Amino acid sequence: MRKLKIKKTQVIASVLIVIAALICGGVGLYGLSARSSEKGNEILSNMRLQAILDTAGTGAVDAYVAAAKAEATARVREEGGGMTEIREATAKAEEEALALAEAEGIGSVDLTEIDTVPLADALNVLADAQKAYFEEEAAAQAIYIEEHEDEVVADTVDDAAADAADASAEGSADGADLGGDDAGADMELEEETVDLSGFEATEEMLALSAGVDQAYEGLCVEIKKVFPALTDDILTALKPTITNTVAQQGDTFEKQYDRALSMSGMNPGMNGTIMRQGKTLATSAVGLVILALVVLFYVPLVAKTGVPRLIIGLFYVLLCLLAFIFNLSLPGQISNTLVRLGMNGVLVLAMLPGIQCGISLNLGLPLGIIGGLIGGLLCIEFGFSGWFGFFFAVIIGMVIAAGTGFLYGLLLNRLKGSEMSVTTYVGFSIVSLMCIAWLVLPFKSKIMKWPMGNGLRTTIGLQTTYRHLLNDFLAFKVLGITIPTGLLLFLALCCFLVWLFMRSKTGIAMSAAGANPRFAAATGINVDKMRIIGTMLSTMLGAVGIVVYGQSYGFMQLYQAPRQMGFLAASAILIGGASTSRARISHVIIGTFLFQGVLTLGMPVANALVPQSTISETLRILISNGIILYALTKSGGASRG
What we know:
Number of helices: 25
Shape: elongated
Radius of gyration: 33 Å
């Protein structure tokens, strides 16, 4: 057994990082506990009170100025003055009123100079009433969304059809690029959102809303004691501002604190800052502990996982921590990652036979994807649905992919040494060729065809066939995380079948032919035949993978959509630890999880860091293409001859 060698510098660095983690963790836990303490409640309450009084004070000044201007206008009119005299008099009155208000402190108040207990009590009553209303509203909206979830697909398909119809009108002359680069080029999973415009308040919501109104009236009574100049009309106008300051839907301590701080301008002191950053500090402590372990065991970790997978793994952990800090619903993001793992896993698995048989990364995966798409289209054309429709699409797709995969394998055997280039060209070429085919194939189903003209839609919904069939099968929740049991079981079944094949006599011969073609040929193995078998298997798995992907995505996308999917699958398996010459099932699972996990978490985290930016899309492109570039430079771009 080899002795684990750890350098002294690693130990020192790890100890320093652990000390920093202990400090961050201690301060963070203190800040979190202080939030529920009497002192913490007082700090936040005073900040909110000051924000509300500043808002009300502004209204009081406006009322004071309005009264002075009205008095000046009346005086000028009594003296017989005209509009010019009135404008001059009101401007002067406004200037004098603002100066007097500032001198007498009409629009500002010091909390230490007033009795804040009645105000604080009224504020807490309003906050509790608003919180109860928001909870009921969220529950009612969740029920509405569940009841109208099926409408999302139809609406989305109609919108996509309308958009693509415009593209069809403009580009039907050449017919080769109907979908365009914007027609879902890589078929990314999109978040389905139900339109809440038709949502109506329930009786419980209306009752709680009345309670909010009553609580606000009670707060207004206390505010008037501080600012007697305020009228009911002004307080009514200030209601949205004040209630939004007190509480909002989905509020966290951080949101309340930041909102009150920005509106009040108070200095919360060191305790307030520690309370605000408590969650960030505590989470950072966890990240520092992980970093300390990585530094301490860096050498064995690199030897076991490799630098790229270690970096991506740490990056995923960092994204999880940031998602927790930004309150991005980490269980929801993990649920999305699991769905993406299942829906992309078979496509990534399709890379394994190609690598093992010697053709390297099968960037011609769209050849198999086209077969799966045709299987899905035939399923819709014949009106099949449910499990029968799903397996019909899978079987038809595999049959088509087997034939095209055989011809594809013959081509690769004729062009040994240039597989990476050839597979790329084949993938792009078949997608472009099918752009024409989608316009002329004799499908009759109204679900697939354009309402006017010829050809198939760019986006075709699967709600009448097998949408979410695997996702919903035996699905359950654990700690808020939805486990798509059927989807993961199907991926596990495909992985198991490939594992069995790779350990069969043919599978072993195929791996040997890929690892050392000359030695394999010397032992009597038909290398060309093994390459064809591996290519066919890879292509057939691509057909199965797109059917699984489509049922999770909810749609099929044609035209340019499949073009980049081979690159995405290659990125995932390379992240998992595979090379261009050797791959295992574990590389598929780990790589798909890390790749899809980084994409799932990276986009919302990037948008939280830089709101209203396209950094998330930039991040996706950098990750997918950067990993491929790394693999090619590592292998020197060479193929096995």
